[in-house]
Amino acid sequence: MARDEPLHKSLVRDTTAYFLYLLLVTTLGPFQFGYHLSELNAPQDVLTCKSSSLQQSALHDSLPQCISMNTVQFSVVTSIFTLGGLIGALSAGPSCNRYGRLLTMRMTTVSFVLGSALETLASNIGLLCFGRLVSGLGCGAAIVVVPIYIAETAPPKEKGLFGAFTQISINIGILVAQLLGYFMSKGNLWRIILAVAGAVGLLQLAGLFLVPESPKWLAEHRSPQNARQILRRIRGHKADIDAEVKAWNVDATADDISEEESLLSAPPGSHPAPNPKAATASISIWEALVRPAYRPAIVAVVAVMFAQQLTGINSIVMYSVSLLSSLLPTTAALLIVFVSALNVVVTTLCAPLSDKIGRKTCILLSIAGMGTCSVLLALGLFFGVKLLAAAATLIFVASFAVGLGPVPFILANELVGPEAVGATQSCGLAANWIATFLVSQFFPIVDKAMGGQGKVYFVFAGFAALLGAFIAYWVPETKGKSGVEEVWGKREARERME
């Protein structure tokens, strides 16, 4: 096929309805991540008893209308979600390598349902914190395993495009939470906002019963022949899958599969018995950290994940309503709904961009835009210029959507071989959760210590400058590279094989 083939033509040729179903169901995991990040933003005042209302809900009368807490306590409730995310991210890599991508995704749905139930029925700070912690476990695991699953099932020429759906789904989750918060931040209705995530978890659990195991993982760990059958089902009967199968580096020829065996191959949602002959060794997190050959990739992924959070995006997602309410008392909540919608639109429109101009270029453009807007937002809040503050917020989020939103979730699959993808993704997402915790826990505290008025955004601008410079120096471009050898060079690739 020609390299310059229009995107819409390659999408029509390479994408099947079955793959779109897999994409829809699996990305409900990242949806939960975005939803839980922002579910407490709009109803903060009602939830913490700062704002009273006579509005009642249909929930049980014994549940209190609000849970009294101060700024520090609310920061703990908000940030403990990231502690669960950190634990989930660290455990998901080994889990998805050993037990498969499918089983790990099913386990995340249990956390989504249980955590949301605990949050919805919470009558005190402790129970609310525990529910947020359990929800974080599932979200941390989901944003490790889902990008891996998408990368292993997406059409090769559109991996960047479909890889962006992790961030698109996160943004949709943020938007839905902000919309519900805008309409339900009254009385006891905030509990319905928390309950919605549990319903989505149940929906995903049901949908996963029609989702197969990743064919790439299946080929490397259990049954190459069955993996080929699953890939054929995902790509369609007319697709040429020989090049993909060859890249597995295992014997997955279909010549020795009888018609009966093909018909009796494992259905979606099930696992065949382990096949020792097809198994390949996976690298643990510790091995990836101590082996010099993997360190450049881990440093690159961790740096990009730190940049995603320490440039300040979650200060907008988690605290924007309270941050902007002093300047825009009547329109802050509505502005944030608009910002969330803009984030979805720009991320979707920019999804093909990393396949066009490169992953690294998108990240650097994103950091430059966010750093500049941090300065403008700080000035707008400090001098009380409403238009400047609103415009800076919008462009800040749009800049995030260009690169720092979608691209970091793609990189681990392109910087290391398949034996270390889970470990590298876990390291990167652990760094992401640590940075998310730092922002969620200390943003309101640092903002207050600096006297408010947006001066904290000068700190985010400084992080953008430092991390942008490091990424420009250290992180390689992966667009158009066929494998680890081409990304890092043949010498580094040979070291990995030793």
Structure description:
The protein has 498 residues and is mainly α. The protein has 26 helices and no strands. It has helices at 7-14, 17-26, 28-38, 44-47, 71-98, 101-120, 125-153, 159-163, 165-184, 190-207, 215-221, 224-235, 242-247, 259-263, 285-290, 295-310, 313-324, 332-350, 353-357, 359-383, 386-402, 408-415, 421-449, 457-474, 484-488, 490-497. Helix 20 (359-383) packs antiparallel against helix 21. The radius of gyration is 23 Å and the shape is globular. Residues 254-265 and 493-498 have low confidence and may be disordered.
Q: Find the count of extended strands (DSSP E, 2+ residues).
A: 0
Radius of gyration: 23 Å
Strand content: under 5%
- Principal-axes geometry comes out as globular
Percentage of residues in helical conformation = over 70%
Number of discrete helical segments? 26
The average pLDDT is 85
Order of helices and strands: HHHHHHHHHHHHHHHHHHHHHHHHHH
The biggest sheet, with number of strands, parallel, antiparallel or mixed sense and barrel status, is: none
Protein structure class: mainly alpha
Q: pLDDT under 50 segments (min length 5)?
A: 254-265, 493-498
Cα end-to-end separation: 36 Å
